[in-house]
Amino acid sequence: MTETEELVTHMKAELEHVHDDIEHVGRDLEELTAHIKNLDEHLHHLRDETEEGIIE
């Protein structure tokens, strides 16, 4: 294998690792977004309960 071929092979492998890392980060972001939405829903629920308690 020539030096150029070895370099291309190495770069392809590195690119695959980067692609895998990007997919992993994407999944983490989706999970974080879902968690934030869940927390936001709980916050709204607690705020509504607090406001109802104050009105009563």
The largest sheet, given as strand count, sense and whether it forms a barrel, is:
none
Inertia-based shape: rod-shaped
**Gyration radius, in Å:** 24 Å
Strand content: under 5%
Structural class by sheet pairing and helices: mainly alpha
Secondary-structure element string: H
> Overall mean pLDDT score?
93
| Uncertain stretches of 5 or more adjacent residues | none
Helix percent reads over 70%
Q: Care to count the β-strands?
A: 0
| End-to-end separation | 81 Å
- Please work out how many helical segments DSSP would assign: 1
List the helices and strands and how they pair.
Layout: H1 3-55
Protein model, in words:
- The protein has 56 residues and is mostly helical.
- The chain has one helix and no strands.
- The longest helix is centred in the middle third of the chain and has 53 residues.
- The termini are far apart.
- The relative contact order is 0.06.
- The model has no long low-confidence stretch (mean pLDDT 93).
Which key terms come to mind for this protein?
single chain, 1 helix, mainly alpha, 56 residues
TL;DR?
By secondary structure, the chain is an all-alpha fold. It has one helix spanning about 5-55.
